[in-house]
Amino acid sequence: MKRDSLASSEVNLSEADGIRYLHLGTEWVQGSMRINAPFDIDLEYVQRMMAWLLFVPPENVAGRHAMQLGLGAAALTKFCYKKLRMTCTAVEINPRVADVCRAWMRLPPEDERLRVVIADAAREIRQAEWLGTVDALQVDLYDAQAAAPVLDSPDFYADCRHLLTDEGCMTVNLFGRTASFERSLESIASAFGPRAVWQFKPTREGNTVVLAQRTPSRPKRDVLQLRAEAIEARWDLPATKWLKVFKALEK
User: Fold this and answer.
1) Distance (Å, rounded) from C-alpha 159 to C-alpha 136?
2) How many CB atoms lie within 10 A of CB 247?
3) Residue 30 · residue 142 · CB < 8 Å
4) Cβ atoms of 157 and 191 closer than 8 Å
5) Cβ(56)–Cβ(166) under 8 Å?
6) Taking burial as the number of CB atoms within 10 A of a residue's CB, which of 75, 82, 100, 248 is the most buried?
7) Number of Cα atoms under 13 Å in the Cβ half of residue 165
8) pLDDT tens-digit readout, 216-240
9) What would the pLDDT profile of 3-27 be if each residue is shown by its tens digit?
10) Which PANTHER family does this UniProt record tie to the protein (predicted)?
């Protein structure tokens, strides 16, 4: 599906077992919300999109800038805004997705810390106002069938790198059990450098989250362990489990 089609695709909701799901006119899940805990992150791979927290002292998270490319069900945007007290910018090509998230997914109204930009991410991230301003970039740009990323080239990832602050990180949702994964990984490594790239093992559903740092670093294992424990205690994310399935691409 081309990006022009995504801009006008139908948006649907479904519910089961206390969870509300968002779809883009197909059966494929594009995001979810636990109805009785709307600002928590429900899906495992979406939780892993927060792995950039391992590279930031927990006390220095509030006030930083998070940007989501692809709003989905707004889980990341809401978590960063409500739980982490960050400034948040979400870039979404389909205005219906933003409308549904406000009406049904508890996306808060925009204010000085929250902005939803209706735009094609490939063009928006080249705007000068964003360059060098993003501390946590979260990329989840799939077609309506959730079959492949719609933006996945070395040039796109180079543009993503230009958004980041010196200490900034990008996390990307990929499918680790498809033929396109290695190509995606090569594109990210080409833009960021192999030493800047980290990856998770695939989830049960096959989602593989890849992390890339603007400036490569190798925190010691005990530092990562302490950060993971703090993340788990403060924000109830399973960060200590992440360390068992998360590693640098190049040692």
Assistant:
1) 14
2) 12
3) yes
4) yes
5) no
6) 75
7) 12
8) 999 999 999 999 999 999 999 999 9
9) 555 676 789 999 999 999 999 888 8
10) THERMOSPERMINE SYNTHASE ACAULIS5
Q: Which residues pair with 21 in a beta bridge?
A: 14, 32
Can you tell me the distance from the alpha carbon of 179 to that of 162, in angstroms, rounded to the nearest whole number?
27
Q: Which of these ranges, 19-28, 70-79, 235-244, has the smallest mean pLDDT?
A: 19-28
Domain count within the chain: 1
What is the model's pTM?
A: 0.94
Where residue 119 falls among pLDDT bands split at 50, 70, 90?
Answer: very high
Give me the amino acid identity at 223: V
Q: With contact defined as beta carbons under 8 Å apart, do 46 and 139 qualify?
A: no
CA-based nearest residue to 75, from 19, 145, 134: 19
**Predicted confidence (pLDDT) per residue in 120-136, tens digit:** 999 999 999 999 999 99
Q: Which domain holds residue 23?
A: 3-248
Chain segment 146-199, per-residue pLDDT in tens:
545 778 899 999 999 999 999 999 999 998 666 688 999 999 999 999 999 999
Alpha-carbon gap, residue 189 to 204, rounded angstroms = 25
> Looking at residue 102, which CATH number applies to its domain?
3.40.50.150
192, 203 contact by CB (below 8 A):
no
**Which contacts qualify for 144-149: CB closer than 8 Å, 24 or more apart?**
144/1, 144/5, 144/6, 144/9, 144/24, 144/25, 144/26, 144/28, 144/30, 145/1, 145/26, 145/28, 146/26, 146/28, 146/29, 146/30, 148/175, 148/178, 148/180, 149/174, 149/180, 149/184
CA–CA gap between residue 185 and residue 4 (Å, rounded): 25
